[in-house]
Sequence to fold (403 residues):
Amino acid sequence: MTDGGAGRRMLLTNVGELVTNDPGADREGGPLGIVRDAAVLVEDGRVAWVGPAADAPVDADVEVVDLGGRAVVPGFVDSHTHLVFGGDRAEEFAARMSGRAYEAGGIRSTVAATRAATDDELRTRLAALVAELRRQGTTTFEVKTGYGLSVDDEARLARLAAEVTDEVTFLGAHVVPFEYREPDGPGADAYVDLVVGEMLEACAPFARWIDAFCERGAFTAEQSRRVLDAGRAAGLGVRVHGNQLGDGPGVALAVELGAASVDHCTYLSDEDVAALAGSETVATLLPGVEFSTRQPYPDARRLIDAGVTVALASDCNPGSSFTSSMPFCIAVAVRDMGMTPAEAVWASTAGGALALRRSDVGALRPGMRADLAVLDAPSSIHLAYRPGVPIVTQTWKDGRRVA
Fold:
């Protein structure tokens, strides 16, 4: 089988169930826009045509790839990861499973390990995680900084992340580093001064987004606002970590600033839900976190029923969610967050694209990137129905097989 690529014309055919995320009167599955016995024509890495295989345009210049009746979904869009880090926090996980509560301060141990790691060590770990997520059907992913927390270390994390994705987020406002903590250090406000000044200047050339952890144990609403306003002034889009550990101002701040996404959303007031429903800010839910921390799961059903746009992401990181598997996140969201299988698949593809404000990924329709995951299953329901089973058998990115 060819790996395809730019300049090639390929017909991916004998697709038992094709999820397009492009609904139509002649398609099933509501927002999923399902086509049965389908085919996809790929030209120069983009989708050129989608429809029933019997109607597919075939000529002598088209290379035919038979997918054996398998289901195909758009490539997963993982809009929240922390893939560049050093060290390991397995012992912390074991302690948490024995009853210790999760706290934001655990991030500092990863900061120490990341600062001690060389560029080559970080690059090797990053490459392994990218290969891992590719094998599980992810074709677009965001990567945050946030484990350096000094000008030089944040800049190198942004630079390394930019080697593997266009979706880099500067998260200097992750936690206050130990050298700034009171009573001996100059304090959180002084650290924010650094973040909005020299650190932002060093990281912005590599980044598309800015983020802040607006949470108890991290940064206040006022401190977060300073960071996000500075990033926006530097031309970066806004994202927010909010409402993970308890009620807080993160959601309200995200909506006020027109953030593309507010992530976690575990504890929400009625006012938070109403604000999200009346905005273009996506609520990105991270089920791997609650699985790994034993916190309550966010109520996806409440958000969806209120009209909020919901995305799912992995939050792959060494402390609170060390998984790169979007199929796993789909299964947990269906089991524990009130989502239907169809809603979870949409949130992991089209929802993630909206969280990144991308119009070229997350769906399979003419003009979109030919990013897709082939499932060794007859339907996308199996992503939730068969948890833990590696049913993604091929991953295609820009019309090229990458896993």
The longest strand covers residues 9-18. The chain has a mean pLDDT of 96.
